[in-house]
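ok so for the tutorial part 2 we go from a plain amino acid sequence to predicted structure tokens. step 1 is just haveing the sequence, like this:
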Amino acid sequence: MFRFVRLASTQSRISFSTSVSDFERTWMTPVGTKPTNRVTRTNGPKQLMTIPGYPHDQSGNSYLHHPQILKYVKGFTDHFDLGQYVKLNTITKSIRPVPTDGDHVQWDVTYCNRHNVNEIDTQRFDGVIVSTGHYSKSHIPEVKGMDKFTGSVIHSRDYRRPDVYEGKRVLIIGASFSGLDIAFDLSKKAKKIYMGHRDAGLQTKIPANVAERPDVSHLLEGNRVVFKDGSEEDIDDIILCTGYSYSFPFLADDVIQLKDERITPLYKHLVHIKYNNLLFVGLARCVSYFAQSHEQARAASIILEGNVKFPSQQEMLEDADRDFEQKRKEFDMTHLHAHYMGKGDLQWRMNKDHAELCGFETVPQVVKDMLEHVQNTRTLDFGNFRKRNYFYKDPHTFEVSK
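step 2 — the prediction. this is what the tokens look like for a chain of 402 residues:
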């Protein structure tokens, strides 16, 4: 989803342009298919998937099914009458800076109707917030021998039901949330499941017909996989739980540069260093998305109102490089993790940066504490973590029940 902002002197007028958002891709069942078995429930409790000012019903299960999440967001939209600002079925073709007086720019946004691509229009805006998410472009790794594999190969986003794998030997590449969700689901039908991944061994108990393996080395003719420890197995099908790649086809290379999953030039993973009225909300990976997106939206609105004084461009570039290198050294992360916040307290450091930059309070400590409990439970008991229910006891503490 794109948020195109045209600022008036005393009040912001906001229009939203969207074709299909990441949220809809994740939580809406595709037309003509049965409801998914994999992502039928969230991997975080509703207490952490709350937009301030519009709480969930605190009764019932904490882990919701996808129609409930979609209903919640639609309810939020209706409650605050946001529908009047939404332009549905719209594909953004390009967003280009237009120089104005001084060092400022406006933005020409060219878009077309999703159902009539020849119906093209361009409007000019004073600022743009890009909030397209990062769950649309599947990351497909290069695996030697994959071109000769005769079984099915799909990405996790296309997984629907376990029954099509009944009695089969399935290789899952990747062992994060999607990989584990699919492995547990497949274990009811598949003969054997091999999870090839590069991480340390899983800490949770896994089904008896699921086996961990090192990362995949290559595939041999005859549908045989070779792992990096030299072991081999016969397989029938492959499911790639390998994540997603950033994609901004509407922004030219002279606006942003995308290399090895690092987007530059960005300050604090939020604001364009050269064009401070181009902002990215929801860019960071592996965070508490509802809380962080809300905080980043707050920051973006304050920035677009002109109420933030930035360091020089050179200072911001040096800060971004320093952040990138420090993260890699501190957490032994690869160059592909520039915007990954799933280690230590990285996401809360980012939130603190945004709060200090824009002059508001950070995410409440109780939210951080609850997330830590959820993460620990999910890591140690993946098969049962959704059976727990969370409650805010007061503004500072929470409780858990089964």
